[in-house]
Here is the input.
Amino acid sequence: MEAVVCVGDAGINGLATVRSLGRRGVRVHVVALQGSPQIASLSRYCASETRVADLGALYDALRALQANAAHRALLLIDNDKMLKALAPHAGELERSFWIVEPLARATQFMDKTFQVQAAAEAGIAVPRTWLPDSWDQIAAIGAQTRERLLAKPSPARFPVGTNPSFKAIVAASAGELERQLRALVASPADVLVQEYIDGDESCHYGSVCYRARNRDACFVLSTRKVRQTSLEVGIMAVGRVVDAPEVRRMTVRLVERLDYHGVIHVEFKRSPRDGKYYFIEWNARPPYFHSLGWKAGFDAAYFAYCDHVAPDELSSVRLRHDAEHCWINLQEDLKRLLRSPRLALRRSTWAPYLRSLEWAVFALDDPKPWLRSMQQLAAWLGISAARAARKRTTRAFQPRVLTAR
Here is the structure.
């Protein structure tokens, strides 16, 4: 069987899929946007590649690929924008491909309001949530809670594929939240507001799950962030496998209630105050760090392949929940350390680098993606250094105001 992987801009997610299947002898074809900085197509395990001008051309490109294929291919999509673009064509694509992601329900599964409701119905604790329509309603939130508040772009106003002016902000009060939002959005209806669950990066837990279509099998691995790209909200820069049975049980309850099949990543935050795991969100696709599971026996791309080609192979899967290796995205971790230089002085910062590791990009048998990612990092460092120099120059030439004593 051939596999077709639709890859987003970063490509780390797709790279893991390409390597997983390519190392097992599966011929992998990558589909990506022209001009995207993705690195998956540079892999030695990428047999061929198609570049499309924009998301609107993606469906036609996939139809052309399958029309020329000798056998039905496995289709894996690693990012939300492509899922959203292909969702209206789910029926047609399902007749041509074995589709891993729940494409027909992609828009519903991406809706944060639906996610919060589904988690609550599955018996999972969720932060109190508001969808304000006016600034008065934002102010009224302050009378309902004294907790810090987290605001995200509203899924109704900013569906997947759009570009809101912010990803998430945290405020100490409703008044501070209003001040920040007025500079970012035209209307409070543009945001979803939740109580912020306190706790540092170590309180961020997650699960990666594959629920099979052709066998009664559900595999769940629990993970924890060690360091993320920013202090309060951000993507994983360093993570590890942890044995968190409650996280796994909650994930199983959720996917069973949703009748979900395929790969899903669910994120939780454990409150130091009451010890509960609170639902944050899910991604109806593999997370970009899904190679974290390899050393623990969890390989989502391979599970999907077996599910559609050799379901009996799934019976031999044995996960290691006691595997304590770390996963490191070196590029993002170095960026975080540059933003927070004091971290570099702590011994604990470097402890993950001394453990058994799974690198996000680096691989001895497949060096080209890592070399390209280092070029991208060097370009980012150059831009950051130039920006910092301009700020210093601007401050140096600002007129000083002298006050009489």
Notes: Residues 335 and 341 are 10 Å apart (CA to CA). Residues 201-359 form a domain with the D-amino Acid Aminotransferase; Chain A, domain 1 fold (CATH 3.30.470.20). The chain has three domains: 2-106, 128-195, 201-359.
